[in-house]
Write a structure and sequence with these properties.
By secondary structure, this protein is α/β, with parallel strands linked by helices. The chain folds into two domains: 1-75 and 240-278, 3-Layer(aba) Sandwich (Rossmann fold); 76-232, HUPs (Rossmann fold), CATH 3.40.50. It is 38% helix and 16% strand. The strands form five sheets. Strands 1-2-3 form a three-stranded parallel beta sheet, with helices on one face. Strands 4-7-10 form a three-stranded antiparallel beta sheet. A two-stranded antiparallel ribbon has the order 5-6. The longest helix is centred in the first third of the chain and has 14 residues, at 49-62. The relative contact order is 0.18. Glutamic acid binds at residues 7-9, 40, 195, 209, 213.
């Protein structure tokens, strides 16, 4: 049985790109499968309850139905803490006390900056802290993030791959990202950790999401291996572009489902416009 999900962040109104993603995921579950909705609301500063309600209304209007209660990431910190404990026990996590400016200064000092898919790599300063330095920072209550020691992590798991519906077998190369943050300073989790843990706990076996998240799957596959979690199949679909060729963004209100509804567009017309078969 196919179990898929749509996992928006309630930081704005859904647009046509979200409709494409949600309807594609929904379509995969229509022969006796299960479609779930999940709210990725760990970013307390940007998420709004009004957007949560708008997500429910807009998806319902599009004809989607899902079981309740809806999983909200902001309520699942115990699950993420448990995953972090496992990674700590394996010796692949370390606290990082660096501020942005300290990281910039360290990169400048090192001269050459290695870049990964998400930008410049973390220069590694806190990986080398002595236990005494670490203790001192903790004692001063200096805020810290938790980073994955990528070299250690990759060494533990060996060669990994996943199956992508459009690209077939993809070999995971998470090392290109360097020491990613798995728990942020301001919230004790991250997109990468929460999504991987949730997809496992919700028994998702088909992850349908945009091509813009393809690179993130390299990290998710590694976390699955480290945490002993299931690996779903993936479908990273094409992105809908606006008339100027840019990816649709929540900030562009004109293509929000909400405004299309208000203009009198029907759900059927939305389906035609996004052309699911392509
Ligand atoms: N929450 C993410 C977003 O709104 C999607 C995450 C995912 O599908 O893995 O872009």
């Amino acid at each position: 049985m196919v179990i898929s999900r749509f996992a928006p962040s309630p930081t704005g109104f859904l647009h046509l790109g979200h409709a494409y993603s949600a309807l594609t995921a929904y379509a995969t579950t229509q022969e006796g499968g299960r479609f779930l909705l999940r709210l990725e609301d760990i970013d307390g500063g940007r998420c709004r309850e009004s957007f949560v309600q708008a997500i429910f209304e807009d998806l319902h209007w599009l004809g989607l139905r899902w079981p309740k209660p809806v999983r909200r990431q902001s309520e699942q910190m115990t699950d993420y803490a448990h995953a972090l404990d496992i990674l700590t026990d394996k010796g692949v996590l370390y606290p990082c006390f660096c501020t942005r400016s300290e990281m910039a200064a360290e990169r400048a000092r090192l001269g050459q900056v290695q870049r990964g898919p998400d930008g410049p790599l973390y220069p590694g300063s806190c990986r080398q802290l002595t236990p005494r330095q670490k203790e001192a920072f903790l004692h001063q209550q200096k805020p810290f993030a938790l980073r994955l020691d990528m070299e250690q992590a990759v060494a533990r798991v060996g060669r990994l791959s996943w199956f992508d519906r459009l690209q077939g077998e993809v070999v995971a190369t998470p090392e290109r990202f360097g020491d990613v943050v798995l728990a942020r300073k301001e919230t004790p989790t991250s997109y990468h950790l929460s999504v991987t843990v949730d997809d496992h706990l919700q028994e998702i076996n088909q992850v349908v999401r945009g091509q813009d998240l393809f690179q993130a799957t390299h990290i998710h596959r590694l976390l699955q291996a480290l945490l002993g979690l299931n690996t779903p199949q993936y479908h990273h679909h094409r992105l809908l572009l606006d008339t100027s060729g840019q990816k649709l963004a929540k900030s562009n209100r004109s293509l929000s489902i909400r405004s299309l509804r208000q203009q009198g567009v029907t759900p059927e017309e939305v389906r035609q416009q996004i052309n699911l078969s392509r």
